[in-house]
Amino acid sequence: MGKTHNSKSASVDGSSSAGVRPFGWRDKIGYMCGDFGTDFMFVFAGTWFMIFYTKVMGIPGTIVGTLFLLARVLDAVMDVTVGVVVDRSKDHPGGKFRVTMMRFTAPLVILSFLMYQTFAINSAMWVKIVYMSVTYVVWCFFYSCVNIPFGSLASTISAEADDRTSLSTMRSMGGTIGGLILGIVAPIVIYQKVDGHQVIRGGDGTHIFAIVAAVVSIAAFIGYLICYFNVTERVHPDPDQNAKEGEKRSPVHMIANAFSSRSMLGIVAAALCLLVAQLFSNQLMTYVYTDVFGSAALASISGLLGTAVMFLVVPFVKPLTRRFGRKSICSFASALGAISMLLLFVIQTRSGIVFLVGAVFMYFALMGFNLVIWAMITDVIDDIEVTRDTREEATCFSCYSFARKIGQAVAGELAGLSLDWVGYQSGATAVQSAATKTALYNVATLVPGMFFLLTFVCLVIIYPLSRDRVLYNVEVLRVKRKGITGEEARLLVKYEGITPTGTAPEGSTIEWPDFHELERARELSARTGVAIRDPQAEASTDNDQ
Fold first, then answer.
1. Where is the domain boundary, 248, 280, 299?
2. Do 366 and 488 belong to one domain?
3. Is 499 helix (H, G, I), strand (E, B) or coil?
4. Is 11 within the bounds of a domain?
5. 487 and 455 in a common domain
6. pLDDT at 3 over 50
7. What residues are paired with 499 via a beta bridge?
8. DSSP H/E element including 390
9. In angstroms, rounded to a whole number, what is the distance separating the alpha carbons of residues 12 and 16?
10. Using CA atoms, how far apart are residues 450 and 53, in angstroms rounded to an integer?
C-alpha cells in the first residue's frame, strides 16, 4: 500500500507528516513547465518534422510516414520497458521520478536540435534517409526515458482528487502554451510569401529549421529544470507493496496486470483514437492553411485561437468534473470534435475564415479532453490499485503512453500516405494543383472526424470510470492509507454506504453482509477512526423512536 506524505492525508501509521511542503502553486507551476518542455519538442516534431524532410530535404512523404509508423511502434515498446524499469528501481530521497527524468533530459534536447540539420541536403537519398531515421529513433528513445517518469509524477505529487485535476489542467496548459508559441511564431518565422505563394524562408538549403530547433531545445531544457526544482513527490510506495511472500513480480506480470484492467483498455483505446485525430489534424492543418487557403497567417491565428479556447475552458474544468465526472466531459468533447470536422467535410468551404470557425469547435473538443486526460490516467492507476491491490504508476502510465505512441504512428503513416495520395509536390518552393488542394482539404477533415467519433464510442462503451466509481476509488484509497489492507478498506467503505454506483442516502435500505463482516467492520472502524453506518445501531435507534 502507498504511504502518503500529503498534508491533507494521513501517513500509513495514521500520524500527520512533518517537514514536507504542502501541495500548492509551486507544484502546479512546476508540473506545467515540465509539460511545456515536453510538448514544445513534441509539437514541433509532430507539426514540422514532416514538413522539414518533405519540403527541405526532398524525402517523399511515404518514407517519412513509414518512419513515423516504425519508430512509434518501437517507441511504444520502449515506453512499456522504461515504465517497468522505473517501477522496479529504488526510490530516491528527492523522488524517484524527478531524478530519473532529469538524467535523460540533456541528451533528449540535444537530439531535438540535431534532427533538423541540413548538412546532408546534397547527399544521396539513402544518406538523408539514414540520418533522418537514426536521429529520430534515438530522439524517441530519450523522449520515453524522460516522458514516462514525468507522466508518472502526477500520482505521487498528491493523493487528493482535486489536486490531481488541478495538475492535469496545469499540465495541459503548459503543453498548450508551448503549442501556442509554436503555432503563432513558427509559421511566420519559417514561411515567407513569394509571388503570392507561401514558401520556406531561405529556399533550398535553408537553416531556418535548425535555428528554430535550437530555440525549442533550450526552452524545453529550462522547462524541465523548473519542474525538477519545484515539484515534490509526496506519495511513496512501500518497497514490498506489490510483493507476495517476498516474491517480486515479473515485468510480464506487471504489464499483463495493467492491460487486463477494463479501465486501462478503455483509456488506451480512447487515447489511441484521439491521438490519431489530433496529430493527423496537426500535421495536415499547416498544409491546408498554407496551400489550400494560401495564408500562413491563418495557421498562426488558428494557434492563437486554440490557446484562447483553453483559457475559456480552464475555469470550468473543476466544477464540471465535480458535477458530471471526467468520463462525461470527455465523451461530450469527442462528440463535438466529430461533428465539427465532419461538418467541414460536408460543406466543402473555400473560405479560410469559415474553416477557422470549424477548427475552433475542434479546439473546444481537444481542450475538453486534454485538460482532464492526465487526471483520468491517475483514476486508472487508482482503479487498478483498488481492484488488484497493486500500484505501479510508471508501468500503468507507460501502457497509456504505449497507446499514444501507436496513435502517433498511425497518424504519421496516414499523413504521409495522404500527402502522396493527393499528389502533393515536394520542394520548398513547390506550388500545388487545384485537384491536390481539394483532396488535401477532404482528408484533413474526414479522417480526424472519424477518429473523434471512434474516441466517443470507446469512452461510452469500454471505459468504466464514471464519476461515482472514481469517488468510490478515492475513498477506498483514503481509508487504505490509514494502514489497512485493500480488502479491509473496501469492507469499511461498504459500511460507509459508498459504492461504485453512488452513495446511498441516509435512512435508505442498504444490503449489508453477514454478522461476522459487520463485527470486522466495527473493529476496523475503531482502529482507523473511520465512521461507519452500523445497520444494527440504526435499527435500534428506529425502534426506540
1. 248
2. no
3. strand
4. no
5. no
6. no
7. 502
8. none
9. 9
10. 28
DSSP 157-189: H---HHHHHHHHHHHHHHHHHHHHHHHHHHHHH
Domain that holds residue 459: 255-466
pLDDT one-digit tens code per residue, 397-434: 777 777 777 777 777 777 777 777 877 766 656 666 77
SS3 240: coil
Higher-pLDDT residue of 128 and 81 is 128
* CA distance linking residue 143 with residue 129, whole number of Å: 21
Sign of CA pseudo-dihedral 384, 390, 392, 398: negative
Cβ–Cβ under 8 Å, residues 167 and 27: yes
Q: At what angle do helices 352-388 and 251-259 cross, to 10 degrees?
A: 120
Task: Tally Cβ neighbours within 10 Å of residue 365.
Answer: 29
Q: How confident is the model at residue 215 (pLDDT cuts 50, 70, 90)?
A: very high
Residue matched to cell numbers 495520395:
421
> For the segment 438-480, what is each residue's pLDDT rounded down to a tens digit?
888 888 889 889 999 999 999 999 999 888 888 888 888 888 8
Q: For position 199, which CATH number holds?
A: 1.20.1250.20
Under the banding of pLDDT at 50, 70 and 90, the label for residue 251 is low
Which CATH number do you get for residue 401?
1.20.1250
9, part of any domain:
no
Residues 75, 223, single domain; the answer is yes
pTM: predicted TM-score of the whole model, two decimal places: 0.66
Q: Which three cell numbers stand for residue 203?
A: 529556399
Q: Which residue has the cell 473560405?
A: 351
- CA–CA dist 452, 411 (Å, integer): 13
The reply to whether 106 and 225 lie within a common domain is yes
Q: Which residues contact 142 (CB under 8 A, 6 or more apart)?
A: 104, 107, 108, 111
Q: Is residue 226 included in any domain, yes or no? A: yes
Residues 232 and 280 in one domain: no
Q: CA 10, 13, 16, 21: dihedral to nearest 10 degrees?
A: -80
Residues 66 and 178 in one domain: yes
**Is the CB of residue 167 less than 8 Å from the CB of residue 154?**
yes
Residues 333 and 213 in one domain: no
Cell numbers for 253: 506480470
Q: What is the DSSP track for 138-149?
A: HHHHHHHHHHHH
Q: How many domains does the chain have?
A: 3
What does the alpha-carbon distance between residue 258 and residue 255 come to, in Å, rounded to a whole number? 5
List CB contacts of 115: < 8 A, sequence separation 6 or more: 45, 49, 132, 135, 136, 139, 213
Torsion of CA 81, 265, 377, 362, to 10 degrees: 110
Last residue of a domain, which of 196, 229, 248?
248
Q: Give SS3 for 545.
A: coil
Does 204 reside within a domain?
yes
Please, which pLDDT band fits residue 543 given cuts at 50, 70 and 90?
A: very low
Q: Which candidate, 358, 366, 349, 517, places its Cα nearest to that of 451?
A: 366
